Model the fold of this input.
Amino acid sequence: MTFEAADRAVRDMNKRNLRAFDGLKTLKFDELNVMRMVTKVYDAAVRIAKRRYRQIAYDAYIAALILADVAAEKAKDMADDAITEDWVLDMLEDYDSVTHYRFDTEVERKKQRLAEAILSKNDKIAEVDKALRLFSQQLAQYADNSVIRATLDGYRDAGVEKVRWETEDDERVCRECEKRNGKVYAINKVPPAPHWRCRCQIWPMLD
Done:
């Protein structure tokens, strides 16, 4: 399981979103237009994110199948059927134990908060920068979620029954992840990541 594709996607989205959010700093708004412009920026970013999440998940799913000894061509056919737009929507609609929210619900909250801040605060630049930082964190977490969920789905669809949790074994490993290091879990009982941007690995246990 690798997060490299997720990291690349996050960097690309951050570059694009930086330009879009910067546009909110210079425009002059009346009250009706604030929400319209903020919504336009967030909605465009979310559309792109959903497409990137699907690609991230597609690649992670194939990689998981290959790790579980599924032939590459068959893995691609399985991914075409499994990793759909509905797969992404289902992931985003689930309540997440790390973020403590549902993706689209939180996006709506972020829109409202930023619109209110732009109208009520003197330092609009600082408010837009803060909103972008928080939104970027959300997008990054769900990029990682795409990898983790697709990996487990791939193992499950390949017939894997047990997986092993492994940490990066460095100084940044948290106590909870350290407790899990080396533990074997049934495929349907793997605990969720215990914190934001957890980079622990989940490996299939093959006969």
In short: The beta strands are 162-166, 184-186, 201-204. Residues 117 and 127 are 6 Å apart (CA to CA). The first strand starts at residue 162 and ends at 166.
